Each structure stands twice: as structure tokens, then as C-alpha cells.
Amino acid sequence: MNRKQSLKLKNVQIMQYEISEKLNTLSIKGDLTEKQQALSIEREATLNFWHNESAISKVLEYSRSAESNELEDILKNRDNKYEEYENDLYLYFSEVGHYRLLSATEEKLLGKAVQEGNQDAFKQIVLGNLRLVIMIAQRYEDRGLDKADLISEGNLGLMHATRKFNPEKGCRFSTYAVWWIRHYIEKAIMNQGRTVRLPIHINKALKKLMSELQQLSQVLQRRPTVKELSEVTGQSLYEIMELLAYQKASLSFDHTEIPAITMSSPNMLQNKQNRIVDFFVENEAFNLLEHILFELEPKEREVIECRFGMNGRSAKTLDKTGKVLGLTRDQVRYLQTKTLEKIRLMLEEHNVSLNDVLA
């Protein structure tokens, strides 16, 4: 099946989920020139935009406000030159750029309506977040699936997140949806069963980590937690999860089964025998934690990074953390306790336990 045929098939799936009648036009039927003339966003500007990291960041910034009508100006101001994609993807990117981003208030109102079975509200939330899927999908290129399939899988994750979103939890929809979008994309990549070649130094570090993991599993007679693995290897939680991210990318279903780290999350561990899926779940939980950290106040984020050795920092004592932040030992302890409780509540919105990530 070629890329265009694959996109058509996925569009049928999207229609079945009732995103919008407007998405029906994406399955490349009829004259392309007429469709291009109907679009208000120029071809080159659109292609440039979706390949530009700084521009993608601006989309996320605008998703935090109601000023989404300025998106077209951002699109038209992109001037980097990139290789052109197929017409079907161009049309999709252009179409997505027309949908207005939602404010926090709108998300809450629409989220409540979705819970009451309102399909129009469901469509509004999904359409307002399609560009988020594209932003995430672009980071998974060269993993065995083409861009069209990555986007389609991500859209399924977005729809799932829309149905499960509870606005009363106080979490922004994008924070919640990222986890499910990545889950659907990465599950599709893993099901593809393709191997990705890694740099030699990464392979060596990963091989050593897997050896330690297997030995620790035998000693404990169970799967180790991330913290237990960190204590044995001397690596920080962040370093371990970074290696597991590489492991996830390079897995081949022809390889020997590898023991996984304990983790529990929604609808992802139905088959307890699948150790490879366990690896994926554990890494996604840590990715979710990292995403949540950037929702915190600067000092809240710093105290967690210092105390638990995250984002390139080494784990520090209360006293050393206090020196970094300009706080007393007791102030650090209080801030850490308060922040961990805040993180715990945010993780629970995704049915993930704080102990599963940091214990």
C-alpha cells in the first residue's frame, strides 16, 4: 500500500470516528488545483511551518490563549526552504491550519459537553488539536511508519483522549492528550516490528543497562522499579529512562524477550506476558512526568529536578538543593512535599501513580 492509499484508508477511519465532514475532503478526490485555490494558506508557507521547530513551539504557545486567529500570520511568515511533500499531506496540513485553537475556558465547557454525549463538542475539541498531533508525529519519522500513518495513528489517540478527558481535574487538554497521542503512535511503530540502528556508544550503554536489569530481576524475583535500577547502576532516573527510550525505538520482535520495569497505566497492560509493551509503558509514564514538570512553577520544577536527578541534574541532598535554590533545608522539604502532591494529582488524571515513576 503506497502513502496515498494509506492516507485514504486512515481518513475513512477518521470519518468513522465522526471528527468532521470537512475532513472528508482530505482523501484526494477530484481536481487538486481547485482544492488548492480554495485554501487560503499558501503551499510553501504551510510546508515550511510544519518543518520548523520554533514555529511548532509557537503553536503550543498559542494553544494556551484564545488568540488563535493569529495562526495564519505565523504560517505566512515562515521563510525556510524544505523539500515538498505529497499533495495529500499538504492539503491536510493546510486544512488543519484553519481550525481555531481553544482557550482553557472553552476546553472546560466543551469537555463537559462531551461527557454528556455532545458530538459537536467532541468534534470541536478534536479539530482544535489536530496540529498538536502533527507536532508530535513529526518527531517519530524514520521509525518505520510514514508521516501520513503517524498522523493518522496520532489522531486516533487524540480522539481517545477527547472521550476520556475530565475538565474538572484542572488539567489542560493538551497536557492530557499528549500521552494518548504518543501511546497510539508508538504502539503502531512497535507493531511494525522494525529495528532502528543506534550509535555505538548508545548500544554499549544500553547493553550494560539491560544486563544490570536482568541480574536485578533475578535477585529480586520480580521486575525492578526505576529507582532500584538507578541505585544499582549509579545512573539518574532521567539517564535510565533516556536509554529505555532508545531501547523502545530499537526493539525487534525477533530478539530475545527482555524483562521490563513495573508500571501500571490505563488500558495498556491487558497482555501481562508482553514484556516489550511494559518497556513502552514505563517510558511513557516518565515522559508524562517530564511534561508535567513544565506545567509547574520554576522553583517547583527545580526542586524536583535537583532532588531526583532529572533533566541532566545530579540528585542532591536537601542542603545542596537549598543552596541551589536559595532556600533553607526546611523550606526545600516543604516545597518538595507540596510539589510532589501537586504532581501526584496530575499523574492520577492519567491513571498513573507517582510511586510508579519515582519510587
TrEMBL record:
A GO molecular function held by the record: DNA binding
Keyword Acetylation included in the entry's annotation: no
UniProt xrefs under SUPFAM superfamilies: Sigma2 domain of RNA polymerase sigma factors (SSF88946), Sigma3 and sigma4 domains of RNA polymerase sigma factors (SSF88659)
Domain of life assignment: Bacteria
Gene3D superfamilies: RNA Polymerase Primary Sigma Factor (1.10.601.10), Winged helix-like DNA-binding domain superfamily/Winged helix DNA-binding domain (1.10.10.10)
A Pfam family it matches: Sigma70_r1_2
RNA polymerase sigma-70 region domain segment(s): 128-194, 293-344
Annotated ranges, domain RNA polymerase sigma-70 region 1.2: 91-119
Keyword DNA-binding belongs to the record: yes
UniProt keyword terms in alphabetical order: DNA-binding, Sigma factor, Transcription, Transcription regulation
GO biological process assignments: DNA-templated transcription initiation
Protein name in UniProt: RNA polymerase sigma factor RpoS
Originating species: Ignatzschineria ureiclastica
Lineage: Bacteria, Pseudomonadati, Pseudomonadota, Gammaproteobacteria, Cardiobacteriales
